[in-house]
Each structure stands twice: as structure tokens, then as C-alpha cells.
User: Fold Copper-containing nitrite reductase from Brumimicrobium oceani.
Amino acid sequence: MIDSQIKSKLKMFASLTLIIGGASLFSCSGGANQESETRKVKAEDIKVVSEMKADLTSPPFVPKSTANRAATKLIVDMEILEETGEMADGVEYVYWTFGGTVPGSFIRTKVGDEVEFTLKNHPDNKLPHNIDLHAVNGPGGGAASSFVAPGHEITFSFKTLNPGLYVYHCATAPVGMHIANGMYGLILVEPEEGLAPVDKEYYIMQGDFYTKGEFGEQGLQAFDMQKAVDEDADYVVFNGKVGGLTGENELTAKVGETVRLFVGNGGPNLVSSFHVIGEIFDRVHVEGGDLINENVQTTLIPAGGAAIVEFKVDVPGELVLVDHSIFRAFNKGALGMMNVTGDEKKDIFAGTIQEGIYLPEGGTIQSMPVDEKKADEPTVELSKAEKMDLGKKLYGSTCFACHQANGEGIANAFPPLAKADYLNDDVSRAIEIVLRGKSGEITVNGKTYNSVMTAQNLNDKEVAAVMTYVYNSWGNNGTVVTEDMVKKVRNK
Ligand code: HEC
Ligand SMILES: [Cu+2]
Assistant:
């Protein structure tokens, strides 16, 4: 019943798309936009004399600039693979992919290219697929011409007329499901002269995922159609999985380098408020087009849209890439890292940040200034029960957002405190982490984490209380932490 309703809606949507497509073609030929009209005509007139095979790259990498070549006949050879991958630690998902990755392989073209596109549907796949490239001027963005069953291949071609950064995606019914399973990627059409040179270029795409189990529920998770229709995402991630851009997948740059991010949003549902904690975008190609905005904090990337974001990294430290709809970042996976190495630039940034790490965003990760007077007051040691009381409150207001309600942490991002060997093995070390923060690789219960915890700036009484609470909860070893123990570590 519901299925047939969706099907009829999809049909309606498909015919609507055709109408809209027709209307916009009409308004263009009507000369509504003189400038782009002349450019289009020019692009059409570009003669192609050579031929080359396109270099396709997996995220987060992009092929090299087209600035040094003329428009050409560009042969794109892309294989669709349905395969099981890891959505998060211990969570598996069957992804449908363009080229074996989510997002799919990056295609770099330039204005005037004649793209000859061959789409191959691997014989082990179970479903037919196709591709709708938003860079195409033509019905369905190529979808109807590229419909291909498992074990078959199909070739179609188009000429790139409009420079910009475009999303491509599968458009086989149910369209939403094909996109929700990872069938999207980016195609760049560079202007004739190419984009200005930069030091680093990366490819990032956000996507929302809908699973039968809740976030983090272990095992192979099936797609949940009802949650997708309700837009109730379990995962919102960069590059296809929780941790797609952290740990060994984090991006890197050096102080002084210019960075260009090609950022897309596959959706299927959610709009991204793309933000980099600790940087300001010097330039944004709004929606991937010609309009340039400067000095931008957060740029909106629609589902099925993109943006080109450029900035110079000024100081060393960890930049944090997020969807600033912030629960998605800290609770659903939309969090990535860029590690910037190089010399400190105290004139640009000289905050009281340990090890040059800059995470100034949000109440939970912001270091609160210490109340000096309060810290110096002579205090009477609290009883264990009082420590548990105060500790529970402090845990709920400070540690909770990252280490979670029952100390279970978040796979690939925040280590567990519940039954944590790292915690239980060494009290002084744990106290020191709360006092001074922690970065770099650590192993907790056999899983490695390479992330950042900022110093918590609690006074001795508070640290004693919160650590006593942690040690006496969730199966930990029952240590009672005294203010003296905290003082010793603080004065070390
Ligand atoms: C902003 C997120 C965040 C907050 C808030 C936070 N932590 Fe952490 N914590 C981390 C991260 C990330 C690590 C791992 C650091 C690394 O990879 O080097 C960590 C590591 C730890 C560890 C060592 C590893 C383990 O699992 O035993 C302890 C102990 C710890 N935190 C305790 C606390 C306590 C207690 C609080 C509250 C007073 C707290 N943390 C608040 C993010 C946070
Ligand atoms: Cu598909």
C-alpha cells in the first residue's frame, strides 16, 4: 500500500522533473541570461581534436587540474558495485556505489569536453542502475540513456557547457533508496583557464543514512524505508561512514598552504550547514557556481548540490569539519578532521590552548575559564556519596556530550569510559587527561582513537568528584579519587 503510494508519487516527481527541465531549457534559449547564453554558445563551438581516458579518483582525492590541457574527448569508464562496508565500528551496511566508494569516483572535466561515459553494472550486482549527472544539458541528466542491468554496460555522451561543481547520482526507482545507499558523487567542469592553483585539493561529500537499528547498533544493518520517508536519519556522515574523515582518514595541510574543498551533499534528505571549526572560508563558490562569496563562516549545501570552499590555513592544529546542525556532528557522525602542521603563529592565534589545538566551538568542547578564587578556597573533602552526587551532575554537564550517557562513547570518535581498560589501569593518567586534555593515538579496549579532548578546567574538588563518579559507574573498578590525588597530578 505504502509502496504503491510512493511509486505513484515517484512517477509524479519524474514527470514534474521533465516539465521543469523543459521550462528551464526554454527560458535559456529565450535569452533570459545573456552572459551565460554567450558562454554556452562559445562552449558549444569548442572543437575537440584529441581524446584521453579520464583519471577517476576515490575520495578524498581529486584528479589533477585541467588548466594545462585543451578540451578533449574524455573517456569515462565507471563501474557500479554493490558491496558490504563499514558504516561505523561494528556496524555493516550494503552500499551501492559508483566506482566502489561513497561518494563515487570524482570526475574532472573542463568546459567544451565531449564526455563519452560508459557505465558498467557488475554481474554480481542485484539491481539495475543509471546515472543522472547535474552537469548534463539533456533529459534526465543522462538517466534514461544510461539505464543498465547487472552484467551489462552502456555508453552515452554529452558536451560540458556550464562550468561548475555538480552532483551526480543514480536515478533508478525508488530513487531515494538508491541515493540513500550511497549512489552519488561529484563531477567538476572547470572553466577554460582552469581553477586558480592551490596547494591542496580534497573531495568531501555529506550523506544521510537510515538503518533498521539505531545509531551504533551492531551488525549488518538494513535500509529503513520508513525512517527515510520520515527524514529521521540514524547517520549523517562525510564520505560514507562515521570516521570517513578522522583517524587514518583525516585530511592534512601545512601552515601557510591554500586549501580547496570540493564539498557535495548527496542527501537524500538533509541540507548541510557546512562549517570548519577554527577556519574562515576566504572564498566560497556558492552552490558550486560562478557566484563567489568571501569571508564565510558556514555555507549551506543543499541536498543534490555542492560548494567549492577555499581557505588558507594560518596556524597549526586540528581543524574540525562539521555539519553545524550540531547534533549531527556529535551524535550522528558528521565530523571530520584536518590536521595542520607547522610553526605556531602567535600573532594570529595565541589562545590558552594546549598543544596548539583549537576547538573553540560549542559549550561541550569549549574550555571554561577557571574560577581562580573558587579553586583556591580551602575545602573540606566530600564524602563518597557527595562526590557521586556532584560527579553525576558534572558528568552530565561536561563529559556526557562526547563520552555519552552510559560512558559507552561513540565509535571512532570518543572512547568509552564504561569498563575502559585505559581508565581502570592508571588513575593518575586519567586525572591528568581531565586536567590537561589529551590528543594523539590511544588504545581503549582494543580500539584505537586518534582524536582530541580539551582540558576540562575543573577545580580539584570537581575533578575528584567526577572521576569518583566515573570510577564507580558502569562496571569500573570503584576507585575513590581524592582532592589530594588531583593536586599531586596538577602540581606535577
Ligand atoms: C569534546 C569531547 C570530550 C569531552 C567533553 C570529554 N572528553 Fe574525555 N576524551 C575525549 C576524546 C576525543 C578522548 C580521546 C583522546 C585521544 O584520542 O587522544 C578522550 C579520552 C578520555 C579518557 C581516556 C580514555 C578512556 O576512555 O579511558 C578519559 C579517562 C576521559 N576522556 C575522561 C573524560 C571526563 C571525565 C570528561 C568530563 C570531565 C571528559 N573526558 C570530557 C573527548 C572528550
Ligand atoms: Cu542505483
